[in-house]
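User: Can you model how calcium ion sits in this protein?
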Amino acid sequence: MVQSDTLVGIVGAVILVAVMGGVFAYEYTQAPPGAGTFSSLYPSLDPMGDIDSDGIENEVDDDLDNDGIANDMDNETTFAASFSGSLSPAAEGSEFILPVHVDQGILHVVGNVTYAAVFPAPAPVVPAFSASLRTAEGETVATATSQVTGSTVMLSFEAMDLAPDEYELVVSHSGGDIGGDFTGNYAVHYE
Ligand SMILES: [Ca+2]
Ligand SMILES: [Ca+2]
Ligand SMILES: [Ca+2]
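Assistant: Here's the modeled complex, given as structure tokens:
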């Protein structure tokens, strides 16, 4: 009888371990990394938002700002992008437009556009470009200021207190007859 009781005890213990193991495995596979803690880690962000516009909601995006640094190693939530474009000499009134997504929890947007003076010429001639950020409805929320360094012109802007929305970064030819190529970048910083 003693041997039989011991056997029952061992079998019972084995079953208990198997059940507990099953519960643990279930909870482990049912809980995505960071689930339930997103709002505590990022109280200002929208769990259902999509900062980097990659189609993966913030809450389940392992790299929500798409800078190549996983969330748990990333201490700055900033979506950054670069671009390039060209406006022809006859492009007065035409525009280069880049969509800019702004999610909940934004601190500010900064950006710049750089272009070089056109050579050869009796003297370097700079294209008459301007840059701005505007809403989809056409309201300008930031206008770039320009700084000339040698033959390079940099247009820089910053926009504070933006509502989460879809915006447009616009590079336009504001007059004159000189066109040219430009490069640029922008960054949307989040709390
Ligand atoms: Ca995303
Ligand atoms: Ca990241
Ligand atoms: Ca980052």
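A couple of observations from the model: Confidence is low (pLDDT under 50) at residues 14-35. The CA atoms of residues 38 and 69 lie 17 Å apart.
User: Helpful, thanks.
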